[in-house]
Input
Amino acid sequence: MSNSILTSSPIAAARHALGWHKAKRLARDHITFIVFGLITLFFILHAPNFASLATANAIGRITAVVSIMAVGMTMVIMCREIDLSVGALASLSAMVGAMLMQTGIAPWLSIPVMTAFGALIGLVNGLIVTRLRIPSFLVTLGMLSILSGTALTLTDSLPVPIGDRTLGKIMANGTLIGLPAAVWWTVVFALAGIYVLHLSVIGRQMAATGGNEAAARFSGIDVDRAKVVAFAVCGACASFAGYMLAARASAGNPSVGVGLELNVIAAVIIGGTSLFGGRGSVIGSVIGAIFIGILAFGLVVIGLSTTIQEIVKGVIIILAVSLNRR
Amino acid sequence: MSPADNPLPALVSMRGIVKRFGANIVLRTVDFEVRAGEVHALLGENGAGKSTLMKVLLGIHKPDEGTILVRGEPLASVSTRARLDAGVAMIFQELSLVPAMSVADNLFLGREPVLFGGRIDRRRIRREAAELIAKQGFALDPDARIEDLPFAARQQVEILKALSRGASVIVMDEPTSSLTVREEEVLHATIAQLRGAGIGIVYISHRMSEIFRVADRLSIIKDGQIQGPFATDQITIPEVSRLMARSASVVVMKPQARREPGEIVLEVVGLSTARKLRDIGLAVRAGEIVGIAGLVGSGRSTLAKALFGLLLDARGDVRLCGREIGALATPPRIRAGMALVPEDRRAEGLVAQHSLAANVALPNLAELTSRWPGVLSWRRETEMFLGFREALHIACREPAQPASELSGGNQQKVVFAKWFASNPKLLILDEPTAGVDVNAKAEMRALVLQAAEKGMAVLLITSELDELAGLADRLIYMVDGQLVAGEATARGEEEIRTVLQQLAVTHEAA
Output
């Protein structure tokens, strides 16, 4: 096919058209990643010392929280549902985790306990959505209020210090083979997410549920169970991420997760997951989260004031999502 | 009689309309016209192309070829708005009225007269609505709320709405399907009045007797081709039935080797739902095809869904191979050996954006796991699809191709494949050949026979009477949520049609 343009046979022309079509489709499907690459390139060229391992580590550390939450959110959105309560759950988990550490629990044991705590909250979300047939938008909006209110009430809005240093090392600040712990956790969650969503039966059931709920039901898929599992995983991720924030700051802060849900949802959508369910990828969501991180970091490095930053970030997010719409 | 003999001018005339959906040709060079003051009936089985033709007329679909003339002028724009302006309107089965608003408000919905400052001129709406009603001589109260009105009155509001927008051609799609006998009389009087006023009416109905009472001319659509128009006083019901029946070459003939029915696979006793089904009892044996005949809305699809465990309000005994499964949800019923090819392929049968292989795998995920716990084997999934691709001749590019890209017939084959792969004991088919082209229909029917030959019990629900006549070993009639007339042994297509019409009449009278 090297001289396909020269050959005038209709078959060759058709094949050439098909190749062109494929390339075009590939470009369209990954347009956000192309934009992402271009913006990164812009920062590399215009921001001093942007292309360095230190920068990469810093970005990896600050985006770990959103990345991990986005893994869980991808599953919920795959099911054509939404979870607005993840930011509030992160706040509550930071508080509950810090208070748990005050009881003198072993740091390594507190991590699975907090993850299970988040899964439990997610389970409640999922059960309300599927049993009471209330749209997840409303259920999790209510839950957002309940969880953030609880986080603030626990200590009357005061932060809870964490005296133990090992927790901070395990969760965020320690390094292994030159990479920060936060980055390792991101990798672990991303791999687990890929396993669940793209390789396992339950992941396929989530995709079918979001892709066409009626057809999934008619195929004998337990649609409600798929959704409940997605919400539980999402809760577990959010809680872990919130606890990571507390460990990093050595204190549980009741408002640490405020607004995080918007960044998480933006990361998932930028990553190519359809807001209408049935289509998406965990790795895309993580890339989306890193993109948001690079954007924030790069804008600081080129010296934009933090107020203008927010505006630029918003515009770029809208642009990225509009390009990614299918 | 040729159109030239008739003095009445054509209000709308469609010439050489061709409409394709992908590879599927739905309309093949169709001519259709409506004259002032005539009722032109349009007949055809489900999926023959009636509704597509009407959607082309209304500008919902753009024809691939052909022209539409309104009072001799070609219509340039395809928008529905343009059709409304040109005077073509449709009275839908599902009426497009706002239930919580009054008759007058509905009549002026979207074009309310306004006073200074953008306030709606309620007094004028009321006055003009009353004038409109009086002009047509309808017994309607302009202040009555739509939700409080009987169905026939709502229909009158729809008709008034169309007339007030200057409609000269009104399409009525199954207008009597939701009416009582008395309301039907009201409708027929209304139609007579409209006809007297020079309005052209397209009348779509399944009920032959009604068409002969109401219509001046009739045309028949079959597999995308139109026959007629025939004047109703120059043709008889049997002749029309014969024209509607498919040509012999298309019909799958009954296999000469009779299948021997085996053990009872499905046994249903006293199955009811809150609204639709009443005391259903039936049995299907292995290797037997039992056909369920019934008019649209008789509850056949509801029965299929109830059997499959999709309706929460279903009560009664359902036994599959002797095992009581009446209280189970859908997944355990599938594991017990049930399969359902649903009525609406796109909405219920397929996840259109997902790959073909993923669609076939969907009910069979438990069998497709690899050595790792709970992990799908993509290789086995692909192999499963490729096996059926060959066996069912599914025309596609690759297993990873999205299901949405296939033609209707091939999509339906994928739905068949996903259930054949689950190796069911009972196969429930709800309109398995709806909306697929002639050849695919024949292939689909061959598949149904194949399933029965393999020893599956088959419950076949279809509106295509030749399909029932050609495939079913035994027929059950369904009217208004009940199985009636025992288990009749009517064979021929026309015989089935006659029985159905008689049942409908006797049931309405009762």
